[in-house]
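Researcher: Going back to the complex we discussed earlier. I've cleaned up the inputs and rechecked each line, so this should be the final set. Can you rerun the prediction on the complete assembly and write out the structure?
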Amino acid sequence: YCDPLMASAGHRITARQRWTPTPVQLQILDQIFDQGTGSPSKQKIKDITLELSQHGQISEMNVYNWFQNRRARSKRKQLGSSSNNAETEQETEVESPNEKKTNLGTLLSQQNPAPRADDLCFQSPEISSELHFLSEMSSPSAYNGDEHLSGKMGMLGSYGVYDQADDYGMAG
Amino acid sequence: YCDPLMASAGHRITARQRWTPTPVQLQILDQIFDQGTGSPSKQKIKDITLELSQHGQISEMNVYNWFQNRRARSKRKQLGSSSNNAETEQETEVESPNEKKTNLGTLLSQQNPAPRADDLCFQSPEISSELHFLSEMSSPSAYNGDEHLSGKMGMLGSYGVYDQADDYGMAG
DNA sequence: TATGTATGAATGAATG
DNA sequence: CATTCATTCATACATA
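Model: Rerun complete. Updated structure for the full complex:
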């Protein structure tokens, strides 16, 4: 995209693109991670953050994200490298990923997505083949379209779809 | 465990991308959220879904999840209270670009041992346009396509400082 | 300068 | 509703 922080403020917010862990910080984090600490508690996060702050600026959010990514990444690596089949890793067979990815590499990024049906990417990718003009296809039963999902919320009808909250809406 | 689609590992079925709210949808959702509607009733969800469906494919579940996440992440706590700098000079000039509603703490700050001009400025975001065709939903990024209409990204662009971690660690 | 990779960060969805 | 997971985006850095 273009201006991340200079938009509203207009001042020099000195945008830090993103936190870059120093080697020391990384070592500490790695060590902690190796200790078997899966999801550090808030207190732990604060502690770690404080410790790491001695070796460079850092926030609790950074630490949290780090662990979060670490776990996710580690798991992903395991699945791909282990004896597990895992044939599809990062296939990314999306319709047209070309234009999407290249917009950041260059110095210019367009916010103006060209109107194209191919780019349709939603919960029901299959419809892309026979998508009309997405006029009345916005039916709430988008998930119902697949039989695979029927087991979850298929027979539920209109509202049973939320298995996580069958009563999320009580008072009107 | 519910296997949505990815579990089958059928590389043919492709992977269904998660719902990506269009700028318009996001604006509407944001607006509704700002109205103070905490937990929209089922009827409300239906209504919203119907409204949003005019701007792209969406299901009630998407709306429901959105509000759930919104509420959860909106609570963004100031965890950065402990994060202090030690040997590095921290600039407190960081300010809040705006104050829509998700203006979390001003603890964003990182990058330490690399004094360099972080002045990134590309172009004006005015290039964004709202396609009334069938492209509104095919936004390649849907991030800050329209920064002016949504304060979501308006605060700091992609870096929402805090957004996913309001209480990451439980009791420990 | 352009491309590829590693990884921090954002977010929709799932689970408890 | 709180927390965690999984996926994707975007950027820092290495490389040609």
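Model: Worth noting: Residues 1-2, 4, 18-21, 61-62, 65-66, 68-69, 73, 143, 158-160, 163-164 of chain B lie near DNA strand C (CB under 10 Å from a C1').
Researcher: Good, that matches what I expected from the previous run.
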